[in-house]
Amino acid sequence: MYNNIMKEPIKKSEELINKIESSNIKQKPRWHYVLENIVFWSIFSLSIILGGIAFSIILYAIGESDFNLLRNLSSTGIRSFVSFLPFIWILFLGVSLMIAGLGIRNTKKGYRYSLLWVLGINILLSVLLGLLFFYTGGGQDIERIFAKRVGIYKGIEERKVSVWSHPEYGFLSGTILEKQSDDILLLEDFIGEKWQINIQNAVTHFGLSLETGEKIKIIGLILEDNIFTAEEIRIWERPGLRRK
Amino acid sequence: MSVSKKVCEGLTDEDLVRKSLQNIEYFACLFERYEKKLVRYILRISSFSPEEANDILQEAFIKIWVNLNKFDDNLKFSSWAYRIVHNTVISEWKKSRSFGKDRNIKIDEEIFKNLPSEFDLVEKSYEKDKIAIIHKILNFLPEKYKDVLVLRFLEGKNYNEISDILRKPLGTIATLIHRAKKAFRKEADKKDISFNV
After folding, report:
1. Which of these, A181, A159, A163, lies nearest to A217 by C-alpha position?
2. DSSP structural state of residue A183
3. Could you say which of A63, A84, B50, B93 has the lowest number of CB atoms within 10 Å?
4. If contacts are CB pairs under 8 Å, which of residues 64-83 in chain A contact chain B?
C-alpha cells in the first residue's frame, strides 16, 4: 500500500493505526477486566462454599450410616443401607471442585497453577469449610432444608428412619415416651406405633440419658407383638451434631 | 502527528502501553518494535505465507489494542503479545483448516537433502539451512512439542515466559520441553542427523 501524497510505501504500523481509527475500534474499559476477574474469583469462592456444604453433608451421612451394622443386615437391609450413602452429595462435591478449578484457572494468573495443585487446594478448602459446617450443624440444616424443599430428594433423616424401622430384622427406633421402670421403656416408633422395650441386658452407648423425649435406635429382638428386647441402644443423632 | 522513533526508543514496553492508552501513536511504536519478531514467529509456527502472516499480525495487534486495558504490568508485554499472536495463529489456522491448510511449514526438499549432519540447537546463530532442517524436524512433532521448542530454542524464551505465553503451569512447560527434546532427538536420529538439544 502507498501513501497518496508522498508516493512512499505506507508502513505497516500506519496501516494498523489507520485501520483502528477508520473502523473506530475502541478499547474495552478497565472495569470490564476487573469485573471478569471478580466473576471468576466469585465462581471459585462459591464453588468452594458449595463443596464445603457437600463435604459436611457427606460427613453427616457417613456418621449416620452405622457402617458397623453391615454384618447384621440382610440383603434388603443392605439395599437400603447402600441407598443411604450420599452419592448425590459426592457427585455435587466433585462438580463443585471442578467448577472451582475452572474458576481459578480463568483468573488472571490461574494458569500458573497445575491442575493437581488447584485440585489439592480446592479439596483442602472444601474439607476445612466442610468440617466447620459439620461441627456447627450448618451442613445438616442445609440438608434438611434441601430434603424438605426438593421433592425427589430423600433426606438422610428419612433414609435413616427407613433403615431403623425394621423391627423384624432387629432394628427399631423412635422417641422415648416414658421410662416405666429401670428395665422398661415405652417407645413410639417413627410410624407412630408404641413399643415396650426391655432394656435389662442392653448395652447403652455413651451420651444416652434414656429420658422422656429422647430419640434412640435399638438393636434387638421382637419378643411378642410390640414388645422388643434391646441388646444395644444407640443415640439417634451423634453428639457432635446435636445442638442446643 | 506521529511520535518520533527516538522518543519511543527511550521507553520500555510497559511505558509504551501506558502512553498508548492516551495516544494511539505510541501504539505504532509498540507494533514496530515487535513487527519483525512476531512475523517471524508466525512463520515458524505455521504454514502461512509472509503476506498472511502480516495480516495475522495486524489482526493480533487489533486484539492487543482492544484489550490494552487488560495488560498486567506483572507480565512482560512481549509474553502477552506472543500469547495473543499465538492464539490468533491457532484460530486462523482452524478457520483455514477447512480449506485443507495445515500448520506445518513447507520446506524445500533440496535444502533438506543437502543439510550438514550435526547441529547445535542451543546455538543462537543459525544459517538458513540449519533453520530449515530444524523446521523440517519440528514438523514431524506434535503441535504441543513444536510450540514449546520454537519458543524455547528459536525465540529464546525462558520457561516463565513460555508459561505466560502458552498459559500453562511452569511444571507443565518443563515436562513438555523435556519430552519435546526427546521427540526431536528421536526424529532427528531417524534422519541420521545429530542434534545437540
Report:
1. A163
2. S
3. B50
4. none
